[in-house]
Amino acid sequence: MKIIRAKDYNDMSRKAANIISAQVIIKPNCVLGLATGSTPIGTYAQLVDWYNKGDLDFSDVTTVNLDEYKGLPRDNDQSYYYFMNDNLFSKVNINLDRTFLPDGMEPDSDKACADYNKVIAETGGVDLQLLGLGHNGHIGFNEPGAIFEAETHCVTLTESTVKANQRFFASIDDVPKQAYTMGIKTIMQAKKILVVVSGEDKAKIVKEAFFGAITPQVQASVLQLHNDVILVADEAALSLVK
How many angstroms from the chain centroid is the CA of residue 68? Predict the structure, then answer.
């Protein structure tokens, strides 16, 4: 694992965007695995800025997102499709026909997961997978559990994750309690993995996930076994790591 120490959130965002932009420039028809949440917003904003300056071309890029809430339509402003469209897709020249997320409106979980597994397989494999890190060590919506799930599956979100997402909804009752998410095997099959982490509140889980035991109780710990992981984190998030 390579660790890149950033001064602050903005520096982390620029450093992460540098890695993604290099991937797009080196392989214009690359497959990017994308993440949502507050942490990558600055990274996407930097990519958009470079696109507007003529430095990046997304016209041949394919994207597959980690996850989507079950039961939220794409036009709901808290769906992950809406997030991606608002923060990246609508602001660059990406072909929307090659931007993929799980179908949150498919009520049949087995079908939704099988369909998304097929989509990912048909892309030919993810060249670079962007990840955030949850306070409990989840990546995507792979929550602490007894096993590492292999492929796309339906997850019942933990109470801590529901509470963390509450700030985006009118009330906690409106927060979806289930989501479709890529599995750990799928994430680990990406050629390169980029993890972005910011804030002192993530310092404990950074130390536990990347310098502790490999256990499904801390899903991100499995990334220690991948041969090409880059962790870009600010000083606050790395404050417990020497």
Answer: 11
For the question of whether the overall pTM of this predicted structure is more than 0.90, the answer is yes
Known catalytic residue at 138: yes
Residue 18 annotated in active site? no
CA proximity to 235, closest of 6, 78, 2: 6
Q: What whole-number percentage of the chain has pLDDT above 70?
A: 100
Given the residues 65, 68, 87, 138, the one annotated as active site: 138
Q: Is there a catalytic annotation at residue 68? A: no
Span between the terminal Cα atoms of the chain, in Å: 15
Catalytic residue among 67, 103, 208, 234: 67
Residues 68, 103, 106, 143: which is the catalytic one?
143
pLDDT range class, residue 91, cuts 50, 70, 90? very high
What's the CA gap between 198 and 15, in Å, rounded?
A: 12
Domains of the chain, first to last: 8-190 (3.40.50.1360)
For 168-191, the pLDDT digits (tens) are 888 888 899 999 999 999 999 999
